Batch of 4 targets.
Target 1
Amino acid sequence: LNPDNTVRFKPKEELKQIIADAGIPLPLQPPKRVISSCGSGVTACVLLAAFNIVGEDTNQTFLYDGSWAQWGSHSDTPIVKD
């Protein structure tokens, strides 16, 4: 989001650079996909909106809306720590 106006996204070119700096090559092409997740699903939606703003194929972007709140609440789900 734009720090000067938190109800607006940063400019398209700046979003592209942020995505590239995160190591995500654009354009997204099969079989490359982005699966977005966060603590509750809200922040993950912002990332997917950014991909839409920069004109990426949203068929290659996915939201795990349960996110960490769901995954981490089950004792039998794998958790990997680096």
Target 2
Amino acid sequence: FLDLKTMFRPNEMGYATVIDSYSRNGDGTNAERILQLMKGQYGVGSNNNGANVVAYNAAITAWARSTSRASSNPKDFPTSPASM
């Protein structure tokens, strides 16, 4: 049986395409999850798939379009730099 994970490795374009797809659907959680996977793949094997500006922009757009925010309660946000 062939192991597809070892046969096919995603590249920067593949990761960015998936992040963009989540972005178009307003899914910030999964867009960020794929971005983190992309960052974790940097320097692994022959494909240096570090996160690039396209991937970051798509992830930011996904959160901007997201209908479920990590926190929508203003009390959860820091009020001063010292509390960050």
Target 3
Amino acid sequence: MAQDDAPQTPFAKLYFSDEMISKYEPLVTAMELVNETEGKDEEVMRDYQVHLKKYQNFEWCSNWDGKKYDIVFYGVSGYTGYLMMEYLKRVALKKTPEPFTFAFSGRTPSKVQEMRDREFGGSKWEDTPVLQMSYDDIYSVIDLVKSAKVIVNVAGPYMLTQGEIMIDACVHMGVHYCDISGEVPWTRRIMELHKHAENAGVHIIPSAAAAGGFPDLGVWLMAKKMREEYGEEMRKAICYQSGGGASAGASGGTLATRSAMSTGGDEVRKMMADPFSMGGFVPDRDRWGVKYVNIEFGTGKVTNKNRSEDLDANMSKISEDKHLGIWRGPFVYSYFDTRVVRRSNMLFADLGNQPYGRNLNFMEYAMLPAEAMMQAQMAKGAGGGGGAPYEASAGTYKKGDLV
């Protein structure tokens, strides 16, 4: 009954294994009786079907109390969890017109409870339920997923976790999922679940935040306006990121994520260096529409050539946008956000035949303050030593320095 024809996805590999099935003794006994009677005894078959159904809908091993929350927030004991609870308290719970139910969750409930008590103590949400889940405990994964309509996972670095087990469980149980990742290797890892989720009608949305999510929404809105008002597709989109003017350091979680990606080995570095690592490739063509190709020396392997306008090198320099008259430089998430937008462009084309643009070029930069560039130019003209930012226009930055 190990379901040889079932997709060998992460959760399925664990749950529909012989080892797991052996733990449900009534089903094992029923299977043995079916074999002994060669499936001819109707009562034996009925008993087998009852236990099989309990196994398939996880009844036999679940301690779920039957409560289903609109949203379960997982991994909320750290800094990102603090920000999320602050947003809930200050914005979502005050301004959302319709009420919604929610619970918090984490690997260590005591840490989650501590954060909850600090943020919601004395309010009507001070007793918000706290659920426990650990990836090495398949039963806790089942209970958590059964408790939610949507799971928001803020526990990173994602590429160092077994989060695909939770996502696959969501697909099996019809629960939607999103996270706030900014990691190319993580997104690549869960892409194998795309078709599985599509067939189940489940939405799996990684990078649904500042990294990936916001630039993608901006491009979507612009593409929508182009279609509705001009009947045209987008050919080029540029996103400029501007800071708030106050210096700030990265959180511990962000630093851990950067460390994980920078020490990921040659395969990870090669993946992150590919402008189309998440799909959405637009080949370079000559004026007759013939594709340019690269031919690998020694093997003869032929690959389509990237367009020069899509190369990451374009985002690694300090340069001037002649159209807008602004100066721009490398932005920390450029090498991630561009991949997300290109993948969305591909998915809109494949699933709805309505991409942002069939030949879309998307770039992202940090917008440099005009006054700073003016001061740099003035210092350069006066022969001072403060012209470094302006003089850096001829230089480049390594992607590893910006991850």
Target 4
Amino acid sequence: DMLEKQNGVALLIHDFGEGDNLTGEYSITLNGTCSVVRDVVMAEKYRSAHLKNNPEYPQFIVGKDIAMLRVDVATARICNINDEVLKWNVMSGNK
């Protein structure tokens, strides 16, 4: 219910490095709207894709009371380790 009442959502994505180097190069903030995928066929399609690409994390996508969410991204801010920011939006592309 809470997700459906929201006007917008923000997702923060960070590329943590590998091995001992946990410092990544980019931090990305995605802004958009979120909805619950109620179509059972589509929800299963998304679950299958997630499990195929992330087989070690089924606990995040399979189980009782786990909703499949869809985020329609409208804008993004991509920041590198030098604090250089690239702004993007779905209507005009790169800014």
